[in-house]
Amino acid sequence: MDELFALEKQTRLGNDVKATEAVTTAIIEICRSTNDWKLLNSNVLTISKRRGQLKQVCGCFMLAMLNQYRADDSYLSLGAYQNRPSLHDLH
Question: Which parts of 14-88 fold into alpha helices (H)?
């Protein structure tokens, strides 16, 4: 994950929108694949608050995050649902 954040910084500072979108989407997909909702929330907040982050990139990774969030059926079980943050928590 640290390598991805280093790559995100490099692509963001280089104003490479497509590469930054790809890196941030990969970060979100990794968090989702481990079902670590707290890590997903933390990384979304970190990425969105980065100085100089392009709005186009923020829109892309937020869309990816929402798609991952909606695609997950495991939250329907009571235990997983209680550990899953609401969309209002992801601000």
Answer: 17-33, 37-48, 55-71, 78-83
